[in-house]
Amino acid sequence: MDISSGQKSRTYQIPITSSVTLEGDVSIPGQPRGVVLFVHGSGSSRFSPRNHYVARVLQEAGFATLLIDLLTPQEEGQDRSTGYVRFNIDLLSERVVKVTNWLTAQPGISDLKVGYFGASTGAAAALVAAARLPLVVRAVVSRGGRPDLASPFLPRVKAPTLLIVGSRDRQVIQLNQVALSLLQVEKRLVLVEGATHLFEEAGALEQVAHLAREWFEHYLPV
Predict the structure, then answer these.
(1) Which of 30, 42, 218, 220 could serve as 86's disulfide partner, Cβ 3.0–4.6 Å?
(2) Residue 194: which region, alpha, beta or left (left: phi > 0; alpha: psi -120 to 50)?
(3) pLDDT the model gives residue 5
(4) φ, ψ dihedrals at 72, nearest 5°
(5) Nearest CA among 113, 154, 117, 172 for reference residue 137
(6) Low pLDDT (below 70) residues in the chain
(7) E strands in 69-205
């Protein structure tokens, strides 16, 4: 598939294995300055309004984006009843790696620097993938994430990492502080004042998008 064919936004079927194909939505602004892969977390999907909002902010800043479902519809159904798959970081990170390899092989986008925007358990999958692709992934942002679930891989991450947590999300703050201590790269933990886990409070998600845009603008240079 030629991702540079002039189509600004398009849904792609991304092959993972002979039996698994995932769907992802690619949006490319004119003269993109980098590409950000969104890795959602527990019980979410590529249609998440929160990730769509952040993606629009990044697109307006000149970044291409890929919002991907890491589970097939059948796996999503299984996960809703068991909750198991969403915490299978090995499986999720392996798929992030394969999606990244697919993305960086596409004409029109292969030369762009790659960043990850992860949420909840997706942040752990993104950080494991970043550790496995140190020459490809140049920046990571986590929104309300569980980077602690990637603890064995955190010392190997080479991409500058921004952890964003709501100031009222007490347990997740503690887990992010643990993860921050394990990261050995340029790193920062920012608390969004008054925000809870989903950043539903007025102005909270706007702050997340602003922080993410600044991070990628700094670490995904053209």
Answers:
(1) 42
(2) left
(3) 43
(4) -75, 165
(5) 113
(6) 1-7, 41-44, 79-86, 222
(7) 114-119, 137-143, 161-166, 187-192
Q: Which residues, in sequence order, are CB contacts of 114 under 8 Å at separation 6+?
A: 34, 35, 36, 37, 100, 103, 104, 133, 136, 137, 138, 220
Using an 8 Å Cβ cutoff, are 175 and 137 in contact?
no
Task: Say whether pTM exceeds 0.90.
Answer: yes
- What's the token pair of residue 27? 């949006």
Residue where the block lists tokens 């090995």: 90
Q: Which helix (H) or strand (E) holds 69?
A: none
Give the pLDDT score at 46. Answer: 79
Tokens of 155: 């010392």
Q: Which domains does the chain have, with CATH numbers?
A: 9-219 (3.40.50.1820)
Query: Do 26 and 99 touch, CB atoms closer than 8 A?
Result: no
Q: How many CA atoms lie within 13 A of 85 on its CB side?
A: 19
Q: What is the pLDDT, as a whole number, of residue 22?
A: 93
Cα-to-chain-centroid distance, residue 212: 11
Determine the straight-line distance between the first and last CA of the chain, rounded to whole angstroms: 24
Dig out the tokens for 10 from the structure. 């398009």
